[in-house]
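Dear support,

I submitted the protein below through the web form. The confirmation email said the job was done, but the results page showed an empty box. After a refresh the structure appeared. I'm attaching both so you can tell me whether what I see now is the final result or a partial one.
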Amino acid sequence: METEFTADTPIQAVIDDPAFGDYGRLLFPADDGYWSGRTLGDLRLAFYSHIDPDETVDIVNTLKARAQSGETVFYDIYTAEEKAADPDKEDTGLFFFRGELDARFAVCNAGGAFAYVGAMHDSFPHALELSRHGYNAFALIYRPGAQTACEDLARAITFIFDHAGELGVDTSCYSLWGGSAGARMAAWLGSYGTAAFGGDDLPRPGAVIMQYTGLNEYSPEDPPTFVCVGDADGIAPWRVMKARLDAMSACGIDTEFHCYPGLGHGFGLGTDTAAEGWLDLAIRFWERQMDAGSGT
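What the results page shows now:
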């Protein structure tokens, strides 16, 4: 049996591992100006706190084991021709954390201030936990930039709908998850729909799950929305997030808000913090929308 990755494994060794083919590099930000560290244990990402080395190791070991067992764990969302025409699309795709066959799906979107994609802390952990709850979860690697990121998310959702049978996913009441910039992506797709960003005209998500972003725009047609944030977040003030949800609630939209004491920006799953367990609350919120028939 091959040795598993550990906290002492060099990041470059993970990138170069044959199990990951040519997509190992996308496990980490394509722009190396926003991350540092030589090993998995000392990985650091700009704008993020509470990075858990145990989660990082768990993620890469899980993906490697699944890839070695024959599962497809990465999907391109653009064709070779599209990538040739726009080389920036080379650094895009979907990592797939498979849950139960024909279960509903979620797309998780990491933040990074639209400068880079902090997936190892802000979307991979969420996708892995969702898969362990039985749901099919995708983590999107997108082109930084608000417009291009939303275009890539619309393309990713279109890809999943187009290949739902092959992927083994139920497309009803899907959910969009995101932290920081990724939460804006999820909210914008929920507000304006996939067609507004170049995707097919598809149903809006049954739920949007947002972490720590100071967005204030919304529409009366927005999907049900769950929010969590820390009360010490200097980037995404909790009052801004709560005011948006209060306005949405006044329109009759189902919302849920959680503010955690002492936490700043970018706490991810919140392991060993006041926010630990928020993901379970978010899943229950999503399941409530399933029971209500949202996003069908």
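Response: this is the final, complete result; the empty box was a page-load delay. The chain has one domain: 73-292.
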